[in-house]
Amino acid sequence: MCIYTYVSPKNNDDEFRDCAGCVCANLRRATREVARHYQQHFRGTGLVGTQFSMLVALARSGPMPVGRLAQKLGVERTTLTRNLRPLAKNRWIEFSGVDDGRTRIVAITGKGRDMARGALPAWRKAQASVGPKLKALRLAELLARAA
Fold first, then answer.
1. Rounded CA gap, 67 and 105, in Å?
2. What backbone torsions phi and psi does residue 107 show, to the nearest 5 degrees?
3. Is 49 a member of any domain?
4. pLDDT at position 101
5. Cystine design at 126: which of 21, 26, 41, 66 (Cβ 3.0–4.6 Å)?
6. CA 61 – CA 116 distance, rounded (Å)
7. What is the CATH number of the domain that holds 77?
8. pLDDT above 90: percentage of residues in the chain
9. CA distances in angstroms from 20 to 12, 23, 117, listed in the order given
10. Mean pLDDT, residues 132-146 taken together
11. Domain total for the chain?
């Protein structure tokens, strides 16, 4: 029987020591953890967190141009367009054009509103229980480094 023990090489090069506290990298990690928390709660609803967010934004704001929705959600327009396709395929949203044919207006449908409404209890549970997750991620400490 052979047993292998991995020994991490000791690197005495301190050139990148400051990068261990990189706000950007740590914030990305924290965002993934929080998204995973919400996604666990959305299981069984038929929606993922990003879909719920898009439907809620449309339910709250009403029909709007795709570009404005992208701004509201803080995503690139091309990314949003790609993410809206499954919602349109499921008839949770619908598109319409304006007179010049270049601007597409997106609106939530009754079916989309029903999907969002059905996922609302899962979102509420996720929202109510995210506090300990945020505390464990030590976001206050992370933000203090950025100041």
1. 9
2. -140, 150
3. yes
4. 64
5. 41
6. 14
7. 1.10.10.10
8. 61
9. 14, 9, 42
10. 77
11. 1
The residue range of the domain holding 122 is: 26-146
Residue 142 CB-density burial (10 A; 0-12 exposed, 13-18 middle, 19+ buried):
middle
Instruction: Give me 73's structure tokens.
Output: 């959600």
Q: Please, which residues have CB within 8 angstroms of residue 121's CB and are 6 or more apart in sequence?
A: none
* Beta bridge partner(s), residue 96: 105
pLDDT value of position 19:
78
Which residues fall within 8 angstroms of residue 126, CB to CB, at 6 or more apart? 37, 38, 40, 41, 42
Q: Which amino acid is at 7?
A: V
pLDDT band at 25 (very low <50, low <70, confident <90, very high): confident
- In this prediction, residue 79 has a pLDDT band, given cuts at 50, 70 and 90, of very high
